[in-house]
Amino acid sequence: MVGKALYLMAKFDEETQNTLTSYYNVLYRNGYVGSQTKNIPYHITLGSHSIDTENQTIDKLEKICSATTSFEINLAHIGLFGLDVLFISPAMNFELLKLQQSFFPDYGSGYHTWIAHTTMLIDEPNNTIKALAILTDEFKPFRARIECVELYEFFPTRYIKSCRLKDILHSECSTINAE
Question: Which of 27, 49, 81, 119 is 20 to 30 Å from the Cα of 113, by its Cα?
Answer without folding.
Answer: 27
